[in-house]
Amino acid sequence: MITTARSIVISGAVEGLVDEAVVRRLIRHVGAEPGPIYGKNGKAHLRRQVNGYNAAARWAPWIVLVDLNHDADCAPLLRDEWLPSPASQMCFRVAVRVVEAWLLADHQQIARFLGVSAKQIPPNPEEVADPKGLMVELARRSRRRDIREDMVPRPGSGRRVGPAYTARLIEFVEDTKTGWRPDVAATSANSLRRCIECLRRLIRRLHEEATHENRQGIAIHSEG
């Protein structure tokens, strides 16, 4: 039986590995425990599986995170297209435009991590058309050679990002001391703020339901 927020386990599904790190961090950030995180095989795969995840959310808490990119004019339109009837324990959220915008929204920490001036980070990363491209461009201007080598694609590679781009962003997300700060980033990224609020509402409701069940159990035991 659920008795505390810490004992609540939330499963998830995402597009890729950086998204997985973000979702795991957010679940812990709101006081719950991350369960299995599914997907991680691109947006098309996530779209095919989302109804199954929603069915599972009838019985246990879930979060599904998808990037808006330029697939719809706004997050509500994409949400209605993908999942018009979310289950009671489903937290379906859309990152505007991609999850990199959420990381850029912690201006001071991402600037320190990348080795660039905080003045180079846009105040509203969700308004940037291509946050992933901006992340790579900032890495290209980095004072740190290791960041440039890891995050910027090699000339002629044909790749959009460097060989350790994903690993570097996961490192930033998972560093709870000098890395990403979700609550700070949420002040500059509305879709992140809404995601955190959704998770907190879900946990609060589950906690209240568990408390109610506990009280009913005590009452029945007393009557017996």
Quick recap of the structure?
This protein is α/β, with parallel strands linked by helices and 224 residues long. The protein has helices spanning 17-29, 43-56, 75-82, 99-104, 107-114, 131-140, 145-151, 165-174, 182-186, 190-223, and strands at 9-14, 33-39, 62-67, 90-95.
Keyphrases for this structure?
224 residues; alpha/beta; four-stranded parallel β-sheet; 4 strands
What does the model show?
- This protein has helices spanning 17-29, 43-56, 75-82, 99-104, 107-114, 131-140, 145-151, 165-174, 182-186, 190-223, and strands at residues 9-14, 33-39, 62-67, 90-95.
- With 224 residues, the chain is α/β, with parallel strands linked by helices.
- Strands 2-1-3-4 form a 4-stranded parallel sheet, sandwiched between helices.
- Strand 1 (9-14), helix 1 (17-29) and strand 2 (33-39) form a beta-alpha-beta unit.
- Helix 1 (17-29) packs parallel to helix 8 (165-174).
- The mean pLDDT is 93.
